[in-house]
């Protein structure tokens, strides 16, 4: 009887934890939807004002305080208030209006305000990510309270530390996972999202690691539990995510499959350690996966394509296989045959990094520090940088990323 009561208590506690987690997830989703709705409303108001021809200088000034560079403001002090306080300035790439690469311009802006739990980094380099393109187009607003500028990762030197920061000191060479703000000369970031720049890697190239390492480790290893001896397929093997995932999965002892769109890219993936390289333009990756695994399929798939590959991904998975979706380059809406999922006991997950809480990001960063950084220090995982651009040529860097001609990461240097 006591065992039954204890089991019931455990079950109640489990249900309570699940309900609490569900409520937290719903709150985060509501915040994201609220930001998107606010952005749409601002755009609609702007269009109405243009049609009526009544946008006065006062209206434009008021509008500029709510929207900075085409995205919601960070909620920090207004420009006029900070000018009174003697705020200093820096250069940053701003989105003058949502649109193509040409809307990116280098402007003089105010330095970031440093919160008590943050460090101020003088940026050595920042890296491009696909999310930057979406934000530039007005489709991916930054989280509330974040920098309005582009850039989800950076490397550099700490210039100042907040009152509550104890681990980091002025002068430390670091890299960091950001919610925004990397396309600038300085950025403020929560101390928990900072990593010591790995020895043996230049400070510039260290900017290529935070976003890919946190994404791959949290999805492939923490959540999908890829283990030594298992098989792993990563789509877009020549991308920044792909080149890192290949190296890390091989370091972990997995057999790696990749897809890419040219023989040059496949050869590069092969040189990084990929075992099976598939040209998605000339081959059916499902058939090739089945052939290479004796009809079994792979254990884990990391996918940036989304709807276009969804059904084929399910066909490519083994029993107890795990699919993790981190992008929707091939569409966001699809149908699912639950019989396939049920019969093969599949797990389907999806997640991003940017809208996670600072506490969750800090937990991932510490996991990366403990599990990924040793591989980098040992030389088993190396930065893959395709090209460097000055910050003033951010538009050209975006053009290159959108062409998909690059392999690995593209960096911007202030």
UniProtKB/TrEMBL annotation:
Matching Gene3D superfamilies: Medium-chain alcohol dehydrogenases, catalytic domain, NAD(P)-binding Rossmann-like Domain
Keywords from the named record: NADP, Oxidoreductase
Biased composition (Basic residues): 10-24
Enoyl reductase (ER) domain residues: 99-412
A Pfam family of this chain: ADH_zinc_N
Keyword NADP carried by entry: yes
Protein name: Quinone oxidoreductase PIG3-like isoform X2
Organism of origin: Prunus mume
Name of the gene encoding the protein in the UniProt record: LOC103322028
């Amino acid at each position: 009887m006591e065992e039954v009561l204890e089991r019931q208590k455990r079950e109640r506690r489990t249900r309570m934890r699940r309900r609490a987690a569900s409520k937290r997830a719903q709150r985060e989703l509501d915040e994201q939807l609220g930001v998107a709705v606010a952005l749409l409303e601002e755009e609609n108001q702007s269009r109405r004002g243009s049609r009526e021809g009544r946008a006065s200088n006062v209206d434009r000034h008021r509008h500029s305080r709510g929207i900075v560079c085409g995205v919601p403001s960070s909620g920090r002090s207004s420009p006029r208030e900070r000018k009174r306080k003697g705020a200093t300035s820096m250069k940053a790439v701003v989105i003058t209006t949502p649109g193509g690469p040409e809307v990116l311009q280098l402007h003089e802006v105010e330095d970031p305000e440093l919160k008590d739990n943050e460090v101020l980094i003088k940026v050595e380099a920042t890296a491009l990510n696909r999310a930057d393109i979406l934000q530039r187009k007005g489709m991916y607003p930054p989280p509330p309270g974040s920098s309005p500028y582009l850039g989800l990762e950076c490397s550099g030197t700490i210039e100042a530390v907040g009152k509550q920061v104890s681990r980091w000191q002025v002068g430390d060479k670091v890299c960091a996972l950001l919610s925004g703000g990397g396309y600038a000369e300085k950025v403020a970031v929560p101390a928990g999202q900072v990593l010591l720049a790995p020895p043996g890697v230049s400070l510039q190239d260290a900017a290529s690691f935070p976003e890919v390492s946190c994404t791959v480790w949290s999805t492939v290893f923490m959540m999908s539990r890829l283990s030594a001896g298992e098989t792993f397929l990563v789509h877009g093997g020549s991308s920044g995510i792909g080149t890192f995932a290949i190296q890390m999965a091989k370091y972990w002892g997995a057999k790696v499959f990749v897809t890419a769109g040219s023989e040059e890219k496949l050869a590069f993936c092969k040189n990084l350690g990929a075992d099976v390289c598939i040209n998605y333009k000339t081959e059916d990756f499902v058939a090739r996966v089945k052939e290479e695994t004796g009809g079994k399929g792979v254990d884990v798939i990391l996918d940036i394509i989304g709807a276009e590959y969804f059904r084929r991904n399910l066909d490519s998975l083994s029993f107890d296989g795990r699919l993790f979706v981190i992008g929707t380059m091939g569409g966001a809406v699809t149908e699912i045959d639950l019989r396939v999922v049920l019969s093969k006991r599949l797990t389907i997950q999806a997640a991003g990094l940017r809208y996670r809480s600072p506490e969750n990001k800090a937990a991932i960063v510490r996991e990366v520090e403990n599990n990924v950084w040793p591989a980098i220090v040992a030389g088993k995982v190396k930065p893959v940088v395709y090209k460097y651009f000055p910050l003033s040529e951010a538009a050209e860097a975006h053009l290159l990323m959108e062409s998909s001609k690059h392999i690995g990461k593209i960096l911007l240097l202030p």
